Amino acid sequence: MMLKLFVDRMSQPSRALLIFCKVNGIDFEEVTIELFKRHHLSPEYEAINPMKQVPAIEVDGEFKLFESHAILRFLACAFPGVADHWYPADLFKRAQIDSVLDWHHSNLRRGSVGVLLNTTFGPAFGLPLNPQAAAEAEKTLSSSLARIESFWLKGDGKFLLGSSEPSIADLSLVCEIMELEALDEKLHERILGPHEKVRKWVDNTRNATQPHFDEIHAVLFQAKERLKKSRSNEGSGGTNTN
Amino acid sequence: MMLKLFVDRMSQPSRALLIFCKVNGIDFEEVTIELFKRHHLSPEYEAINPMKQVPAIEVDGEFKLFESHAILRFLACAFPGVADHWYPADLFKRAQIDSVLDWHHSNLRRGSVGVLLNTTFGPAFGLPLNPQAAAEAEKTLSSSLARIESFWLKGDGKFLLGSSEPSIADLSLVCEIMELEALDEKLHERILGPHEKVRKWVDNTRNATQPHFDEIHAVLFQAKERLKKSRSNEGSGGTNTN
Prior knowledge:
alpha+beta, Glutaredoxin, Glutathione S-transferase Yfyf (Class Pi), Chain A, domain 2, 2 domains, globular, EC 2.5.1.18 (chains A, B), detoxification (chains A, B)
């Protein structure tokens, strides 16, 4: 199967997909669609994904698919080398992973994207920063993190649902939370600080997917340093162009 | 398998689940959790679904599951009598249905719930009506309906993805759109009026699932009549208590 991934490593679901393929030895061609350069809005990319979002995949030059959770489910089933724990064949276990993934979209992801756009990345997409929307999104995000801690991570398992090995849900949610690294340090501490169990689980997922986890996140860490420098310049009366 | 469905027929994902079980001859016990009476917030129900939402299921008094898409996937796979078209075993077809379902949560559902809460149902949950939030949600809803028409319903198939038979995605999205029946008639016409192809597909899904579709929607149609009467009383100087 010839697999093309249309991704931007600055996008959290793109990273989940890249790490998944690398960890599972799935061969692919990485096609970068730079969001900050609006490449996702080009007519060429619209032919791949009419919803103009990353990630998307193309299989054997023909079959196209978007929505990161659908892609992760598909790859886990279509490539026989993928270990069962990523998306178990057992219907009861699989259903619980589906439940986490569906919950993610309406809760953690909604909060996280709202905070990131309205405090940090909005201007890069031509959107104003909106403090009121940021505050509302932070509530959703914080309550989602609390839910992860009290429910999805309850018990002694290293991963979601009390599991001893990661699933596509761990990878998807952890990549979402990693995106918060781009936030101002004080805001990051305010949001993640109270959730030790979440931070430990992020570490577990990182450790279970190394060295790919750090390799794929390198772009985000570089962006974090640039943003930090730019904020510190602003604070000392410098400009963004220094 | 002993199946309990915790549902409220006024909730669109609850209805999708009920219709799915009835059409496929799946035996179940219906446990009504009345949202308007806040029964979903009770400690008893929290033990079933800690996220305090309907629907949820319980299998053999033990296995609990929430998130309607996860439940529909699970039932389609766990009950051998369910026809393949509802959630095909073919990985490519299945992946596309997953893609529709995931897209639904961040687009159509988000718009629809925003419009319904901020124009109609908010006060029943102790929330104010918010015209600005309603206007924003209407944009999301209208662009989602346009997307369904131009992309998911492209071609000549009677159902989503050019299919000749319905899937769990048809049922889930159509039940979402049916909830808009509760809106004021002018608003309903403004939102659905421009989308003839969507209205035809709603009819196709209804016809493919009768008589269960109408039976399960009866509560919604009754609510629609009550709301209509109440609006007309308000318009003629009457009150809600007439």
